[in-house]
Design a protein that fits this description.
heterodimer, A: alpha+beta, Rieske Iron-sulfur Protein, 5-stranded antiparallel beta sheet, 4-stranded antiparallel beta sheet, 5 helices, flat, B: mainly alpha, Cytochrome Bc1 Complex, Chain C, 2 domains, 17 helices, 10 strands, 59% helix
Chain lengths: 323, 494
């Protein structure tokens, strides 16, 4: 820091009491001092109060009130002191140009390019080797730092725990029993028409990629199709009015947890994508790009509900490797 | 005594010369220069309350049975992270105050940064030689947003857990490397092996704060080295700085301001409930809550996700989820990059390479002001789009109508805002005496019946009288009892 600022070596010329530039407060400094002192004392009371409040374990509100009062009193007092009793000026300080003089620049640049640069130029081979070695070293340090963090995503579609390293896998397979999050087996008469239930493959209760929403839609007669507007090739994927869709929104993976029975729509509460449950959960509105993947289901002789296969595609939001 | 101590230190470190320059350092006075201080002091409170929280928070997804004092949760299986957050709220004395103050301080920190940044932008304080500091500040804004998100994700409650799920899906949407990035960060497919809380924790309490402290040091160091900008005024030039001295005046005022900011934050922390995680419950990946919004600084990203049409690109055996990638990765990337390079864009556009230490009045730079207004309007518009569902409920409108309104409103409103701001700036430049108090016109009738108008005399506050600035004195004479009362305090009457 340079020290060539003009300075008043000595006292500030005091302003006369009738100086028009004086604020009214300045003419009665003792009053201002009283206000500042009172504020600081209020602050002290606040802080003492906080200690007491803490001691007796009073409510959070009392803690906040006393602490804030302490801070406020101290703050008002300090600012009053600084703003009305301390020299305000206006005082002036010179600025200096940031750039150095031409000769300083020239000598600095010469040291870089002349002294160091020439040496570097002369030994181009070494410089090149140094650069390559540095690059390899960075890779050597960064690769384990990143690669150790997690498994490589695989394209495995088989279940049984591989959901941890594959975006394609779920634990659903033919014959998997539908159970509630508590592990209770879902029976075919569990739901009324219009009812919904979140189900999992037995043994994977609560698992994120496996969550499925089971709905019972209106079925007019026993010979009617299992659901009104089945997508092509999926007419037999529901059973007795039941259909099952992945509960992971195809937009961002939120659970599609709102079922509007009147409009027969599933709504994602996160970004309001709406899926038509009567037509294979096609998105009717909002940012979701794809239908919720459907899980084929069936009922065995005892009325237990089972999966009739796995999903025919990856569940959840889109990603690069998804075909 | 003090003299002795100072001399003792000076013998060893030689502080007197640089120290005098430092205590004489001049800070210009203007209310808008306090906005950055609010951010600074919120950050101080964040560090303090944050250390308190680390003593009680357990970053673990491990499931335990809750036995604390919050009765509705007793006997439920919850994660250690959730249990410890509820525990530090209810079973640690003044824990709830500290936790809520921490959360409020984060919201205020980012709010103050945003307003401070707007001040710097609209007054042109980012121009040469302060481009570095503009970039450092923008980086702090980005890191602040990231750390805010990480912080409110830590309690492992239902609402924040959904946020983490969305974050994973956003990472997944990045072409080519998305699923790798997501798997590495989360230690596998979502939800990972409960490892994400540990990772978020160490990033939140160590990595990002360490970088933020470094950037903050650079921000303030550059401010000291380059000296503060000032508005034009009497005696103020490009080559000086006019205001009050570092010591004691500025120190007193700014310390007082630290206490004031603390009072507000702790007051909010005790009286304004924020993030009551015990009402949301433990996060389960198959559960979801309705009509929840993220913290305010994430709202603009959420809004962009909502209004984006469902354009997914599929081809050649690959998928690019543009409906996620564009609003959640490209959009914020674009915004932050525009912010970072703005000083250079403007300098090239205006062919201006001079030093600028005097600030602009926003109206005097209509194009820049209009561009800033357009940017703010865009961000506010997407911010409001993040509550389409709440608006639809509140106004009893179909959700689709609200969404379609925002799909048009968000891209169109910045254009309108640009035009209107541009026009207003030009009007203000053209109008004489704008911003000054109007003086009454006195109509008089002469004896001959002739009418004439005369402007009334100015009232005391109308004139703007400023003193000629003087160099900082070494000391203030307090000997003369008659004059001592003024104590060297010279104030400008406004």
């Amino acid at each position: 820091m340079s020290d060539d600022n003009p300075r008043l070596e000595g006292p500030l010329p005091p302003a006369a009491l009738d100086d028009p530039h004086l604020q009214p407060a300045t003419k009665h400094p003792e009053r201002v001092q009283n206000i500042a002192a009172a504020s600081i004392i209020v602050g002290m009371i606040g802080f003492v109060g906080f200690i007491w409040v803490y001691w007796v374990n009073a409510s959070t509100q009392w803690e906040a009130a006393t602490l804030a009062l302490g801070m406020l009193g101290l703050g008002v007092g300090t600012i009053t002191w600084g703003k009305y009793l301390m020299p305000q000026g206006p005082f002036v300080e010179e600025r200096h140009d940031f750039h150095s003089s031409e000769s300083e620049r020239a000598s600095f640049n010469a040291a870089i390019t002349g002294r160091g640069g020439l040496e570097v130029k002369r030994r181009g081979l070494l410089l090149g080797l140094f650069g390559v070695a540095g690059g390899i070293m960075t890779l050597a340090l960064v690769i384990p730092g990143i690669r150790s963090l997690g498994p490589k995503p695989t394209k495995s579609e088989a279940g049984n725990g591989t959901t941890d390293n594959s975006l394609f896998a779920t634990n659903w397979h033919k014959g998997a029993k539908l159970v509630t999050v508590g592990g209770r087996q879902v029976m075919v008469d569990d739901l009324e028409v219009g009812g919904v239930l979140t189900v999992f493959p037995q043994g994977y209760e609560g698992s994120s990629p496996d969550q499925v929403i089971l709905l019972r839609l209106a079925q007019l007669g026993p010979n009617d199709p299992p659901y009104p507007i089945a997508p092509p090739g999926k007419t037999e994927w529901g059973v007795q009015g039941y259909v099952a869709y992945s509960k992971l929104c195809t937009h961002l993976g939120c659970p599609v947890g709102l079922y509007q029975e009147q409009t027969q729509q599933l709504v994602c509460p996160c970004h309001q994508s709406i899926f038509n449950v009567n037509a294979g959960a096609v998105p009717e509105f909002g940012p979701a790009p794809r239908p919720l993947p459907q899980l084929p289901i069936t009922v065995d002789a005892t009325g237990q509900m089972l999966a009739n296969g796995g999903f025919d595609q990856a569940v959840g939001p889109g990603f690069w490797e998804r075909p | 005594m003090i003299d002795k101590t100072l001399n003792w230190v000076d013998d060893r470190l030689g502080i007197a010369k640089g120290g005098r320059t430092f205590v004489d350092k001049i800070f210009p006075d203007h209310w808008s220069f306090m906005l950055g201080e609010i951010a600074l002091y919120s950050f101080v409170i964040l560090l303090g309350t944050g250390v308190f929280l680390t003593l009680y928070y357990v970053p673990s997804g491990h499931e335990i049975v809750y036995h604390g004092s919050y009765i509705p949760l007793r006997g439920q299986k919850v994660s250690e992270a959730y249990a410890s957050t509820v525990g530090l709220s209810f079973d640690v004395r003044s824990g709830l105050l500290m936790r809520q103050a921490h959360h409020w301080a984060a919201d205020i920190f980012l709010g103050a940064i945003a307003v401070h940044m707007a001040r710097v932008f609209f007054t042109g304080a980012f121009r040469k030689p302060r481009e570095f500091n503009w970039i450092v500040g923008t980086l702090m804004l980005i890191l602040g947003i990231v750390n805010g998100f990480l912080g409110y994700s830590l309690p492992d409650d239902l609402v924040s857990g959904t946020g983490i799920r969305i974050a994973f899906s956003i990472i997944e949407s990045i072409p080519v490397i998305g699923s790798y990035l997501g798997f590495f960060l989360f230690g596998g497919n979502y939800p990972g092996n409960g490892i994400i809380l540990e990772r978020f924790y160490i990033i939140h309490v160590l990595l990002v704060p360490a970088i933020l402290v470094g950037l903050l040091g650079a921000h303030l160091g550059l401010l000291v080295k380059q000296k503060h900008t000032q508005f034009p005024g009497k005696g103020k030039t490009e080559h000086n700085v006019v205001g009050s001295p570092m010591f004691p005046t500025f120190i007193a005022k700014t310390t007082g301001f630290l206490f004031m900011a603390s009072a507000v934050i702790f007051g909010l922390g005790g009286f304004a409930q924020i993030n009551p995680i015990w009402q949301f419950g433990q996060y389960e990946p198959y559960q979801i809550s309705y009509a929840v919004q993220p913290d305010w600084y994430m709202g603009w990203l959420d809004g962009a996700l909502r209004i984006m049409p469902s354009w997914e690109w599929v081809g050649w055996g690959h998928t690019i989820p543009l409906e996620v990638f564009l609003p959640a990765v490209v959009f914020p990337g674009l915004i932050f990059n525009i912010l970072i390079v703005w000083p250079f864009i403007e300098s090239v556009w205006t062919k201006d390479t001079r030093y600028h230490n005097l600030l602009d009045r926003p109206r005097d730079r209509p194009k820049r002001t209009a561009a800033g207004a357009a940017m703010l309007t865009l961000l506010f518009a997407v911010f409001f789009a993040s509550s389409t569902d709440v608006m639809a409920n509140f106004f009893q409108l179909p959700l689709m109508d609200v969404l379609w309104f925002f799909r048009f409103f968000v891209p169109l409103s910045p254009i309108v805002a640009y035009y209107i701001t541009f026009k207003i700036c030009h009007e203000m430049i053209a109008a004489e005496g704008v911003g000054q108090r109007k003086r009454a016109l006195v109509v008089t009738r002469s004896a001959e019946g002739e009418y004439s108008t005369v402007e009334a005399a100015p009232r005391p506050g109308d004139t703007h009288e400023e003193l000629e600035p003087i160099p900082v004195p070494t000391f203030i004479e307090l000997t003369d009892p008659e004059l001592a009362t003024s104590a060297g305090v010279r104030r400008v009457i406004r």
